[in-house]
Amino acid sequence: MKTTALAVALACAALFHAPVTTATPPKPALVAGFSAERLQRLDTAINDEIARQQLAGGVMVVLRDGKPVVFKAYGQQDIEGAKPMRTDTIFRIASMTKALTSVAAMMLYEEGRFLLKDPVAKYLPAFANLQVARPDGSTEKARRSLTIHDLLTHTAGMSYGPGPAKAAYDAAGMKDWYLVGHDETLAAWTDRMAALPLQSQPGEAFIYGYATDVLGRLVEVVSGQSLDQFIKTRITDPLRMPDTSFHLPPEKVGRLAHVYGLEGGQLKLMETSAKSDFVNGPRKLFSGGAGMVSTAGDYTRFLQMLLNKGELDGQRLLAPKTVELMTADHLADKARGDADGFGLGFWVNVKRGGFKELGSEGAFGWGSAYFPQYTVDPKERLVILLMTQLRPAGNSTLNLRVRNLTYQALIR
User: Between the CA atoms of 210, 215, 217 and 222, what dihedral angle is there, to the nearest 10 degrees?
Assistant: First the structure.
């Protein structure tokens, strides 16, 4: 992976929407503390997946100290149309939406609008008399109120269907994380969610699911704005993330990547941009848990803001103490994910061996059902992001291997 002055300049311009300037190139053998030779292993791994027809394409980003070490498109966004992947290709980001919704909630928290220990029912009264499903199919009353902290840490007892309340979830159509195509408002959906039994007592277990969608509705009620407008006016506009949204206007449809999946080891087209709900859907339910699209450049700006402890290019969204709280471990042995802890919206790596892979203490991140994955490492001043559209992903582990392939190239 050869780095030239022009390549670095173009990458910076695309990521941070700045004019292209020329500069003295870094020494070829060492780029921002990375071995250029070892970085070729990252290139090789991604290209190998494409060559073996296990991946259509993607965009890989590695930033250190806010500057791109890697910012590259691979393969195609539309194989049938022979349309190459571009660094400004738009991707469905599914659960990577959760980070934006969590930041939105914490911005309101900083304004003194609520406490994290506040009952959700204080703002969403439909959650006042919750029942909890038992293993035998019966229900019992919740032992304590459901709190906002429970929503942020996925200890709210809300799954994506599985659990002792599965029959009730199935009957209500709560079977999957995908809500974009629903012909109902977030308010109506949340009221239906509140009528279902929880899958566990509040605070007792990490259960990944609809909690962040409920959090998105709380943002609406507390702020007085729809979730899409709050995120646009308070997060994506200030951070200059123009291609991050809940739906796509006609002029951007051509940049939306197709979704491919692996079935029986073979790459198959699953969804075209023309048939996407992000283009032609009802545009009613703003899913704070899994409902947005973004680009590699946009999402990297958001992650860099978090790495900078709440600020980017003079725009401060959160205080450093708030980001510290969000990226601290809140769950200890209850945590589930790629690391040994969980904060307010992210997995958190508490100790060096917490990843059981390469990493640093204090790193945090998450991923997407469409296969993207991100890691933010404050200790190494590093952002790692792979954007792609692969669902189902079969046995592929590329989205996790790119993290190891990045760390193994970091030598200073």
Answer: 170
Closest listed residue to residue 105, CA positions, set 242, 265, 264, 218? 218
Report which residue type is found at 299: Y
| Pairwise CA distance, residues 49 & 57, whole Å | 9
Q: Dump the DSSP string for 122-138.
A: GT-GGGTT-EEE-TTS-
- Residue 180: closest CA among 260, 80, 291: 291
Residue 151 near residue 203, CB atoms below 8 Å: no
The closest of 125, 190, 120, 126 to 156, measured between CA atoms, is 120
CA–CA separation, 109 and 116 (whole Å)? 8
DSSP classification of residue 357: S
Instruction: Judge whether 255 and 279 are in contact, CB under 8 Å.
Output: no
| Three-state DSSP state, 112 | coil
Helix, strand, or coil (residue 290): coil
- 374/61 Cα distance (integer angstroms): 9
State pLDDT tens for residues 296-338. 999 999 999 999 999 999 999 999 999 999 999 999 888 877 7
C-alpha distances (whole Å) from 183 to each of 13, 282, 284 are 39, 6, 6
C-alpha closest to that of 140 among 206, 199, 191, 193:
199
Q: Name every residue whose Cβ is closer than 8 Å to that of residue 113 and which is 6 or more positions away in sequence.
A: 222, 223
- pTM of structure: 0.92
SS3 assignment, position 301? helix
Beta pairing class for 364-367 and 373-377: antiparallel
The three-class DSSP label of residue 260 is: strand
> DSSP secondary-structure letter at 24?
P
Mean pLDDT of 226-241: 98
Q: What span, in angstroms and rounded, lies between the C-alpha atoms of 343 and 382? A: 19
The structure tokens listed for 206 are 């990490």
For residue 311, what are its two tokens? Answer: 């600020």
Q: Identify the sign of the CA torsion 292, 293, 299, 305.
A: negative
